[in-house]
Amino acid sequence: METYITRQNYSKDKSSGIFFKVFCLGLIAGTLDGLAAIFLSAKGNATIVFKYISSAVLGPEAFHGGAGTVILGISFHYFNAFAFTIFYFFIYPHLTLLRRNIVASSLLYGSFIWMVMNLCVVPLTRIGAQDYTLSGIAKSWAILVFFIALPVSIGVKEIYGTKKMS
């Protein structure tokens, strides 16, 4: 069985460096995903994107809220981006497929994120179940693959490096 180590030693002195890299990766993925949602799905309207995210907790009233509602949506958005980034970081050394091909791992992980968010998380919120169109599914899936899964796949591969220990 192969064991992968990061380019940095897991000592107490170095673990904060790994945490910082994973944090930055989550920040990058969340920012790219947010910008893609704003410009590809909401025609440049950031307010509506983040009020929609806030409506998961606040319901339709979120669309009448102000800056606080937008900030709440941004917070939820980055929480999810960090959660998916951290999850990928921890599963990466255990799933051979993720290490073999960045394109395949991005397609799979983007699909996983889409399914978790749209089939599990969103239906449990005040947004509720959605009516899906093929074009809507394709657009949201592509955003997740290219703007979250791909940068996370590349970044985590870089963090772990290519050094193997048996």
Structural class, from helix and strand content? mainly alpha
The H-and-E topology, N to C, reads as EHHHHHHE
Task: Determine the strand fraction and express it as a percent band.
Answer: under 5%
Number of domains: 1
Poorly predicted tracts of residues: 162-166
Word description of this protein:
It is a single chain. This protein is an all-alpha fold. The chain has one domain (3-165). Helix content is 72%, strand content 2%. The protein contains six helices and two strands, in the order βααααααβ. The chain has helices at residues 12-41, 46-58, 67-91, 96-100, 102-121, 134-160, and strands spanning 3-4, 164-165. It has a two-stranded antiparallel sheet with strand order 1-2. α1 (12-41) crosses α3 (67-91) and α5 packs across α6 (134-160). The longest helix is centred in the first third of the chain and has 30 residues, at 12-41. The radius of gyration is 17 Å and the shape is globular. The model is unreliable at 162-166 (pLDDT under 50).
What is the fold's blueprint, element by element?
Elements: E1 3-4, H1 12-41, H2 46-58, H3 67-91, H4 96-100, H5 102-121, H6 134-160, E2 164-165
Antiparallel strand pairs: 1-2
Helix pairs in contact: 1-3, 1-6, 2-3, 3-6, 5-6
Which short descriptors sum up this protein?
166 residues; two-stranded antiparallel ribbon; 6 helices; globular
In short:
The chain has 166 residues and is an all-alpha fold.
